[in-house]
Design brief:
Protein name: Deoxyguanosinetriphosphate triphosphohydrolase-like protein
Strand content: under 5%
InterPro entries: dGTPase, dGTPase-like, dNTPase_2, HD/PDEase_dom, HD_domain, PHydrolase_assoc_dom
Shape: globular
Number of strands: 0
Family: Belongs to the dGTPase family. Type 2 subfamily.
Radius of gyration: 21 Å
Pfam families: HD, HD_assoc
Helix content: 55-70%
Keywords: Hydrolase
Length: 376
């Protein structure tokens, strides 16, 4: 499908922080995507927790499979809307590069440990990974991605952090958090695809784990609708097939809802180009009915899965692992690798090193340094 006038155009990119000659066979956004895929941070996502710890089962989602699912949903929706699929894929694949081991437990622990040193936020860390921490090129730190890819990766940002970024890069990727602007439509789409993917795969993993049942989920209107619809057509369907078909229908309807609601919003705003689309306010959206249904599902998952005693018990142990590691590295710089030990900001270097760990590496390091084995 041809690119719509309001889509981001790689030929009109705002460029890179370090100028580079164009690639002869790839657009700027294709080049960004390829750099993400070949990065060390991207490979490590395969061993980072989504909800269940990486070693708890081979079929549960990881940060890597989650990112791939966001990319798939984003490209499917973006194609129907005439957006740039390469930019969508880049942002989707990169949006969790800064996530800690052990999921949101790691984010909360590092933020607490870093309270006196500027805090820690995994989304801001994703930008830090692509701007500074990846060491692959002789002339600059980071991956030197285009403005549009970096803008999309910075999904949210506190005013304090935005001002810090703005001071270093006036008019850059953080400006919109100070002025109330919007990112590209491709970035807006990735934010929504992230939510859709999260809900769907956490329903799947929650039921597969035995922590959530289909009977419980039948109390959630969005799941109930498609579960009953599936059973009406296939009354003898059970188990994995019933779960998979229910989730497939739920995903499809959310995709169609986003496409329909967004087309209506774009037609009303009539943006002439990508910059006008940014100024038009958030245009990627659910219908009001689907927004309500999605929010209800998120509330259910928060109460019944993310705060399930079995998940919480492992979260508590994971938090202890990361607190111990932070204090050890903070107190003894010799325990850090040379790339981190030479930093002028020792506390931030400790957080960078820990945030980049996989679940299993963090556990091995903790056992090596403390002699304790907190997980089997």
């Amino acid at each position: 499908m041809l690119r719509a006038p309001y889509a981001s155009d790689p030929a009109r990119s705002r460029g890179r922080r370090h100028p580079e000659p164009p690639a002869p066979t790839r657009s700027e956004f294709q080049r960004d995507r390829d750099r993400i895929v070949h990065s060390s941070a991207f490979r490590r996502l395969v061993y980072k927790t989504q909800v269940f710890l990486n070693h708890e089962g081979d079929l549960f989602r990881t940060r890597l499979t989650h990112s791939l699912e966001v990319a798939q949903l984003g490209r499917s929706i973006g194609r129907s809307l005439g957006l740039d699929e390469d930019l969508i894929e880049t942002v989707a694949l990169a949006h969790d590069l800064g996530h800690t081991p052990f999921g949101h437990a790691g984010q909360d622990v590092l933020n607490d440990c870093m309270k006196a040193h500027g805090g820690f936020e995994h989304n801001l860390q994703s930008l830090r990974v692509v701007d500074r921490l990846e060491l692959r090129y002789p002339s600059f730190d980071g991956l030197n991605l285009s403005f549009e890819s970096r803008e999309g990766i910075l999904k949210h940002c506190s005013r304090r952090d935005a001002q810090r970024l703005e001071d270093r890069e006036p008019g850059g990727v953080a400006s919109r958090f100070l002025t109330g602007g919007q990112p590209s439509l491709e970035a807006q789409l990735c934010n929504l695809a992230d939510e859709v993917a999260y809900n769907a795969h956490d329903v799947d993993d929650g039921v597969r784990s035995g922590l959530v049942t289909l009977e419980q989920l039948e109390q959630v209107p969005l799941v109930q609708r498609f579960l009953r619809e599936t059973l009406a057509e296939y009354p003898n369907l059970l188990g994995k097939r019933l779960l998979a078909e229910t989730i497939r229908r739920m995903l499809s309807q959310q995709v169609y809802d986003i496409i329909g609601a967004t087309r209506t919003a774009i037609e009303a705003a009539s943006p002439a180009d990508a910059d006008e689309a940014r100024r038009a306010g958030p245009l990627l959206r659910f219908s009001p009915e689907m927004r309500h249904a999605s929010t209800e599902l998120k509330r259910f998952l928060f109460s019944n899965l993310y705060r399930h005693p079995a998940v919480q018990e492992k979260r508590d142990r994971a938090e202890l692992v990361l607190r111990d590691l932070f204090q050890i590295y903070l107190n003894d710089v010799a325990q850090l690798p040379a790339d981190f030990a030479d930093s002028d900001d020792h506390a931030r270097a400790c957080a960078d090193y820990i945030a980049g760990m996989t679940d299993r590496f963090a556990l091995r390091e903790h056992e090596r340094l403390t002699g304790k084995r907190l997980f089997g």
